[in-house]
Amino acid sequence: MNRMEKKINSKISQSFTDKIKSRIIGLKYWLESFVGKLTIISLVGLIIIPFVLTDSLNLKYLFIYPMIFAIFAASWDLLAGFVGNVSFGHSAFLGVGGYLTAFFVVNLNIHWMIALLFGGLFSIITGLLIAIPALRLKGPYFALGTLMFGFIMFRLFFMGEIGLEEIGGVPFISEELNLTTVYFIILVIMVASLVFLFVLVKSNFGTRLKSIRDDHKGAKASGINIAKYQIIAFAISAFFAGISGGLFVFFNRYAGYYAFNVTYSFYPIIFTAIGGIATISGPALGTFVFLWAQEILIKLTSGLPFIEEAGLPFALVCLSIVLILMVRFVSNGMLKPVVDNLKELKDVLLAK
């Protein structure tokens, strides 16, 4: 190896070392920040929950179910919040990932973890099939294009004579595992997914995505391959939506038309409106807030005669009104105001 090659290798090694050091310093500052401490406290709370909450139904519907949809919401936020492409067809990825995960587990007897990854990979293929034509559209046309694809996938899979059959007998991850173990598996998957997406949007890749979102023409003029980055973001978003779909099918113990229901495309939009867009953690928080509020309202209003006679989903109607008010008065979601208020409260308490 000559002197020039040694010099080049030394520079590369130094650059890599500097990047690692900067990442460690950034992580240290984040852990010392209020948001970092709040995140750690929340994570510790989620770890303790299954040992405190003995009711299996509450554990499933108040924690496991929101954790699954937190991944789905964060995957949508990557596309809408950091690229600026609002998708109304994310249920297609949820459905494809879920159906194929069930198919691999039940029909081919493949291990649940490998089946889950395969479901995510097939969701990527579906995402690419949507992305290549849809990314030619802009703004509301893109949203409508993805919505139509969601309807097409729903009809293709489960409507008419060519529709696929439902798959029953799907285990909740594995028949050999108890609910607490399943809880921790899904918790690890959720945390790993959110951390990956958070690191991704904080990287150079995420910076380029934000450049495309904020100034499309400027990004193109600076040499960024816009189509390439949009397609990659679409594929990553579809992958995590597919992972969420696989977990959702495990949760329901069968794969059916429900996973392709276009209604699910609006769930991450609602969760993001509550938690805040372009944050990754915001939509995850919004998922828990919305689903918990929905469960509480359902329990409070169940059995009331005037609600049963009306035949309306009263909890959903109330939450929809609250959501409209939030979008009007807290347009950036509730995460930032809540964190700011908690910071002020902490400062006041420490001052005393």
What does this structure look like?
This protein is mainly α. The chain folds into two domains: 66-265, no CATH class; 266-299 and 310-352, no CATH class. It has 15 helices and no strands. The chain has helices at residues 3-32, 34-52, 56-82, 91-106, 112-134, 140-158, 179-202, 204-214, 216-221, 226-252, 267-275, 281-301, 305-310, 314-329, 335-351. α2 runs antiparallel to α7 (179-202) and α3 packs across α11 (267-275). It is globular, with a radius of gyration of 22 Å. It starts with a helix and ends with a helix. 36% of the residues are buried.
Largest sheet, in brief, is:
none
Mean pLDDT: 85
Bin the strand percentage. under 5%
Number of strands: 0
Helix content: over 70%
Class by SSE composition: mainly alpha
Q: Count of helical segments?
A: 15
Strand-helix topology:
Elements: H1 3-32, H2 34-52, H3 56-82, H4 91-106, H5 112-134, H6 140-158, H7 179-202, H8 204-214, H9 216-221, H10 226-252, H11 267-275, H12 281-301, H13 305-310, H14 314-329, H15 335-351
Keywords:
single chain; 352 residues; mainly alpha
Outline:
By secondary structure, the protein is mostly helical. The chain has helices spanning 3-32, 34-52, 56-82, 91-106, 112-134, 140-158, 179-202, 204-214, 216-221, 226-252, 267-275, 281-301, 305-310, 314-329, 335-351.
